[in-house]
């Protein structure tokens, strides 16, 4: 317990780095997969190959990707860019399927109604298609976020891993406390992120709550 | 950098012997299949039971979600510090990571079987055991295989990381290369384990294609009218 008291600054720093390494790829993944998913619904022959490619990329072990990327990108092996790019690849490969499924779940009559009242493509996609696709996209986003948060730690093996560095420290010193602290904080971070995403989804889809019995009273 | 990698992987000396690439691949496959088999022996019956009885769904769903949040390196270092260094603690960690995906998708597959189908099977006089083995498992098979597939990928990936806590296998090239600042060696391990993961994924994709009952996939369907037969019978028939 004294170890925790003596190292709060270090723990905070690792927690902050962990959050950064997990959340930046999640946001980048969303920014890439939404336009990509839209293109794939527009040109539907693209959808299956993209989802299949995503499946292959997602099956790559993270540690392998962390090491192969510097050879491709020309970055330093110990650069955090590798972690961010790798986790972004995972995020896109998982989200692309949800974005496509979500955009396809928009009912045809809704699309036609939007077009007939004069919506342009961009305005329709942003204000009609995406909001309707939110539940499906968020299902993927929650998986990506939780998986990213746990995967960041693997980076500690090559020296950049947020809370994962507590695992390597503990292992090298044969000392349980940092490892337990790291595991607990990592689980807590995943839980909090997941709860926040659920809350955000509720805010973004107010119509989903209309039928709740409380509202009817 | 790439040249170094090609030199390393094409050097016959690196392929033979106990520390050679061939042996490392076999070790990696060995850990993977042993852990997968133990995890399946534990997770399949539990998933089937929960799915069949539809009791304890909470357990199946939540362990699946919690396991996704569990940092693998944390679990590995924790288990090794608690039990000691060696293969057994690492295999235990790999089994722990393999159980949730198998259990969750087995449960999802079995509990997702249409109630009307089960009622029909019961109406034909099938016992609970027959319903499970002849109706629920065949229908759930695609999801069960997909659970085994996720578990395998998780285990292959974590077995690589486990070289950090002194396991053999392909991860050794990554960890040993790292401490020697030998990037070509690290890259060799990374590429080999990536290829292994993709190959195993393809094997499961093929298994999912061919292990699933033709009655479900529509392969070799002789009569196109089978589709209408799944609709509820008109009241007059009853």
Structure description:
The complex is a heterodimer of chains A (217) and B (238). Chain A has 217 residues and is mostly helical. Chain A has helices at residues 2-6, 8-42, 47-58, 62-73, 80-104, 108-116, 121-151, 164-172, 176-204, 213-216. Chain A is elongated. Chain B has a domain at 25-116 and 124-171: MetI-like fold (Orthogonal Bundle), CATH 1.10.3720.10. Chains A and B meet through helix 4, helix 7, helix 8 and helix 9 of A and helix 3, helix 4, helix 7, helix 8 and helix 9 of B.
Would you summarize the structure shown here?
Chain A has 217 residues and is mainly alpha-helical. Chain A has helices at residues 2-6, 8-42, 47-58, 62-73, 80-104, 108-116, 121-151, 164-172, 176-204, 213-216.
List the helices and strands and how they pair.
The complex is a heterodimer of chains A (217) and B (238).
Chain A lengths: L1 H5 L1 H35 L4 H12 L3 H12 L6 H25 L3 H9 L4 H31 L12 H9 L3 H29 L8 H4 L1
Helix pairs in contact in A: 2-5, 2-7, 3-5, 4-5, 5-7, 6-7, 7-9, 8-9
Chain B lengths: L1 H9 L10 H33 L3 H13 L2 H12 L3 H25 L3 H9 L4 H34 L9 H9 L3 H29 L2 H4 L8 H4 L9
Looking at this protein, list some descriptive labels.
heterodimer; A: 217 residues; mainly alpha; MetI-like fold; 79% helix; 0% strand; B: mainly alpha; disordered C terminus
